[in-house]
Amino acid sequence: MTTRTTEIWVGIFVAAGLASLFMLAMKVSNLSAFSGDEGYTIYARFEDASGLKVRSPVTMGGVRIGRVTDIRFDPQQLVAMVTMRIEKQYDTLPVDSSASIYTAGLLGEKYIGLEPGAGGGCEDADLEAELEAELGGGGPADAGAAADAADCQSGYLREGSVIKLTQDSLVLEKLIGQFVSQFLTSKEEGGGDAAPQGAAQ
Amino acid sequence: MSDNNNDIIVRIRNLSFSRGSRRIFDDIDIDIRRGSVTSIMGPSGTGKTTLLRLIGGQLRPDAGQIFFDGEEVTGASRRRLFELRKRMGMLFQNGALLTDMDVYDNVAFPLREHTDLPESMIRDLVLMKLEAVGLRGARHLMPAELSGGMARRVALARAIALDPMMIMYDEPFTGQDPISMGVLVRLIREVNDSLGLTSVLVSHDIDEASAISDHIYLLSGGKVVAQGGAEELRNSASEWAQQFMQGLPDGPVPFHYPASSFRDDLLSGGEGERP
Amino acid sequence: MILATLQHLGQRGMQVFERLGRASILLSRIFGGIHTLVPRFSLFIHQIHSVGVLSLVIIVVSGVFVGMVLGLQGYNTLVDFGAEESLGVVVSLSLVRELGPVVSALLFAGRAGSALTAEIGLMKATEQLSAMEMMAVDPVHRVLAPRFFAGLFSMPLLAAIFSAVGVLGGFFVGVGLLGVDDGAYWSQMQAKVDLYDDIMNGVIKSIAFGWVVTWIAVFEGYDAVPTSEGVSRATTRTVVYSSLAVLGLDFILTALMFGD
To answer: What's the gap between Cα B247 and its chain centre?
Structure first.
């Protein structure tokens, strides 16, 4: 085999290898959706974020608009503080949007679904900013409160905004406990009327 | 040390070397004179090839010193050794040609590795060396296509490619037909004289080696048992020399491998020996 | 009796350390000679051809079959859960994270590794390495280093080709033969396979495997007893040890990368 033929084959080999890597990166992985670091960070507090993981999707209207980037425990407010990164192009999310933790599919993967708010509620944000400034303390929540007051004017969620309305992750045991206690309560009250007020949504 | 450089190219002093429990060399001294053809001979297994490896620095002796061209080989750094080796050529028993290249590339190998000469010059040199060994027409053959004798000649061409000061031959005559033998004998002497080399032969072919050697060293049992010119040795009083030069089956080198008495061995056997 | 066995074991243990030491020294010599690769670049290319290109056939064929089997088996299991749409995820994650790097490394060890050991061992047996030394050419730099770096370079490429071809094989079986939805196969895959966590980790694994397999192959050849029996034993050792090393290393790397 001449040197020239060898070199050609090696070139083909290397090209095939790189093409495979490229194909894996493009078609197989989430690279196309991974539009880089352009985006903005928002926060939300949940009393119960069980099952939610870092890199879980954040959706609105069923469309993925971002990902969870961090989940921490806030030792001051004793709640879970979830950090999300929203893609840059989705910058018209109303400031009073709510965040709920849902379950996707049978396998129980949790994700955050955002629902757009009506756009009001600025008075609350201003009040909260004043209160927290008086009470002192640090943390993203307070920074967020001040930012809230600021972008409340613009009406949209921006970098550092904190979502106020949240709904927790559904945990099976709590659900059952809720169901049972409601059942027992309604039995006490209504005697024969055993229809429990629905706790599951 | 000046007479050293002019006269003696390899100086070995007090060399001792053991492999495992076997003493291969026991405090020997050898001088190789510049421009001469020196043979190191002895019965098989006396470590003649080992001596060549020691001179070339591939092995380290247990004790003693080896000097090549005035520089010490024993204990030299790898870099130093590589420099020294460029002045030595070595011919291995089977030629040791690089099997993935043809004859031309094999001879060109040391030139390409150690010089920056352009390909046109390398071509001239390779053809010259091949012409000297009579194989210029075979330059595109692969080593697998060469006979043993031809392979050795190519290896010789390769060994002289860099115009070394000294060439070492490891059993060059072993297993050759008479014609190849004749060719090699002639080549070794011619190459030595025309290129002003020193040649060190390790061999046990007395007739061939005697024919071209200026000086012969006879080794046995780890010691130099005799040395001198071919005639000198033939007329030597030493028993070793006599047994070797005349090819006697028994003498200082015994016929029987050391064993107990034959009678006892036969009589003590029972059901037969297990292998 | 027991004493003799213990003694024997102890000796074998020391031998292991001895060999490991020799192998490490050899590796440092190989790396020390990396700069000698530059003037000998054509040697390096030639070795990539010998080690990489010539392994392509077995890698591609195996990749296709492994991918197809994954498609088949994955479908059979997922269909019980009504989750056959996730077939793309199963096939691609299995390949990219594990099967691609590991299986291609094992195949590489068997094909290219054994060839390297045999070649180098034979060069040692016919005194070619010795001859090179006497010609003041360092055989470690000229013979071993190009082969080692060629192996190190080729392995990730081969693993990538294996995984890519496997994904296509799974596609062929799942979508083509079993009726999984085309869009679902790719879109679910894209949602679940991460560039850094899965693909990059797979590449890192294959580089590690390439290092280990080629190192063992080259060392066994260089260290072989220079007889025909010695070379054959060395070749066997290469295949066995590098396969075990790949599997062991795979566990360690997986635990490091995919554990918490």
So the answer is: 21
- Residues in A closer than 8 angstroms to C49, CB to CB, are 1, 6, 9-10, 13
CB contact under 8 A, A14 and C49: no
Rounded Cα distance, A51 and A44, in Å? 16
pLDDT of amino acid C58: 95
Confidence of residue B149 (pLDDT cuts 50, 70, 90): confident
* Rounded Cα distance, B165 and B79, in Å: 19
Least CB-CB distance to C160: which of A9, A24, A34?
A: A24
Burial of residue B36 (number of CB atoms within 10 Å: 0-12, 13-18, 19+): middle
Please tell me the distance in Å from C144's CA to the nearest CA on chain B: 14
Q: State the average pLDDT over residues B202-218.
A: 83
Q: Cβ(A9)–Cβ(A3) under 8 Å?
A: no
CA distance C225 to C234: 8
User: Does the pTM exceed 0.90?
Assistant: no
Higher pLDDT, C45 or A109: C45
Report whether A200 contacts A179 (CB < 8 A).
Answer: yes
Do residue A32 and residue C82 have CB atoms under 8 angstroms apart? no
- Res. B4: pLDDT tops 60: no
Report the Cα C178 to chain-centroid distance in Å.
32
| E-assigned strand segments in B143-209 | 166-170, 198-203
CB-based contact C130 B92, cutoff 8 Å: yes
pLDDT, residue C193, reads 79
* ipTM associated with this complex: 0.78
Instruction: Compute CA A68 distance to the chain's CA centroid, rounded to the nearest angstrom.
Output: 5
- Check pLDDT > 70 for residue C242: yes
